Structures are given as structure tokens and as C-alpha cells.
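Blinded run. Sample ID left blank on purpose so nobody reads anything into the name before looking at the predicted structure. Input follows.
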Amino acid sequence: MYAQMVKSTGQAVRTRDDMTVEERAFQDRIDRGEKIEPKDWMPEGYRKNLIRQIGQHAHSEIVGQLPEGNWITRAPTLERKANLLAKVQDEAGHGLYLYCAAETLGVSRDELFDMLHTGKMKYSSIFNYPTLTWADMGAVGWLVDGAAIMNQVPLQRTSYGPYARAMVRICKEESFHQRQGFQVMLTMARGTKDQKRMAQDALNRFWYPALMMFGPSDKESVHSAQSMAWKIKMNTNDELRQKFVDETVPQAEFLGLSVPDEKLTWNEETEHYDYSEPDWSEFFDVISGNGPCNAERLKTRKKAWDDGAWVREAMLAHARKSRARREAAE
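Blinded prediction complete.
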């Protein structure tokens, strides 16, 4: 999900004969399952790949607040409003943890935001789709956060220490988000006929975009095997997508809703569901900036950045004055 179209700087996995002494020692640590820390030596390709993946992950958390934020004031009950507000607040915290993890690799937060605003760094394609009804808040929590968890739980074992540790708390909070979304869908699916229709409509619109969250098919993915060897990425796109389908279809059946895929069938031989591939031309179109809400999302983020300039400037000025007073006192 958070490595959609992340192009690795390393190409094919290098053999030990092609590695330097430092690279061989580094790979040995990875193979032993050791965590790499900020002050440790690391190949430049490893550092750059991490910056790309963690940066895209952080941006996804921040932009991910936008499809839900506009429903806070329109939530049907005070309890729903409080739950959604808490969830959006959690997403802001997730972004903060991840930006901090990226900064340990020598990239500033200003640089990361500049890459987001100029289109040099992406965020998850799912957040370029509109949320049209309250049922979408349930679908986002159930499907989108469910897909995120599929990707994030393995990342608790990723080789870079700050990233792996950030994922521990993020995964715990995301599990609550998924349960919250499923509970919204359950309430609507067992409500009036109109409410159940809304729930089914939300599932229909978010099913395939949720499958796209894991990135393109392995045969089309630009992600190199080197990131797998470095344990920056723990599973392939297709592995995660299959696991998501296998676990989510029974949940839909429990809700009494239909997954919008006529080819969806249980395969006794493989013990997995066979399912239809998403429309990958749509995926690449959205990633390229032509999705339903791409322009709106970036415009909103840029405005927030510009509107907050005075806060950043004030904090920097305060820090400079505090430093000057300490130096004068010494």
C-alpha cells in the first residue's frame, strides 16, 4: 500500500561477490534479523529506498485525513462524531511518527513536504476517491484500514529500527479504526432498506480501489527484489492482496453484503479465493494525478502548508531567541 510505484534505486539483487566488504557485513546483519539504526552504516540505495517508502507512507496518513474530515460535522450521532474525530487525530499522529522516522535518515520534513506538493513523492491512490455518503466512513474504516493493516503488520518486522518501532503503535490504532468501520457497516447493513443500500453502494465503490492499494501486480510492479532482500518490504503486492481478499470476503458475507465481483469463487485446490483483477489502467491514471480528487487533495494540503507558515516561523524565531539567551547566560 505504502510502496505504490516506489522505484528502488537498487536493480537486481547483488550477489555477495559483487558486494564490498561493508555491503556484505550489512547484508549479514539483515539476514540475521538485526535492526539497522540511524547511526549505523548503510548502503546509499537502502537509505534512499527507505526515504521513499516512509515518506509516501507518512504522506498517505496525512492526506488520508481529508476524505474523512469533511464528515466530522455531518456524523449522524455525537458518538459517531467523537469516534471519527479521534480517528482523524490518530492519522495525524501516525504521520508525525513517520516523518520523524524519515528525518533519522537525513531528510528534512520541509523536503518531504516539498516532494509531496510538487508531485515528486506520491501517497496512496485510495485517497483520491470521494466519500459521498456516511456509509463511506464505514467502508473506509473496514476496507481501507483493513488493507492498511495487511501491509503494516509485517512492517513491524522491517529491517530499519525507527520504522519498525513506529509501526507497533500505528498497527494497534489502525486495528481500532478497522473495527470502528466494520461496526458502522454492520449497523447500516442491519438497518433500514435504504441504509443497507447505502452500505452496499459504498462496498461497490471502494472494493476495487481497496485492492489497488497494494500496488500493481507483481509482474508489473516497478519495485525491485533488492528491497525484499533488504527487508524494507516484507511481502509482495500479490501476496498481500490475496490475503486481504481471503479475509474480507467472509466478513462481507457476515454483513449480508455482496462483493462486486461475478468471478469471485472459492478455489478448493489452492484454498484461496479466485477474484477479478482491478482495472490497472485506472490505477495508473490515478497515480499519475488524474483521479477524481487528486487536484482537490493537493490543493487542500498546499493551502494548509501555506496557512501554517506563520506558526512555523514563530516557532523558529522563538527557538533562535531561546538559544541566544542560553548562549548569553553561559
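Unblinding after everyone has recorded impressions. The CA atoms of residues 207 and 260 lie 7 Å apart.
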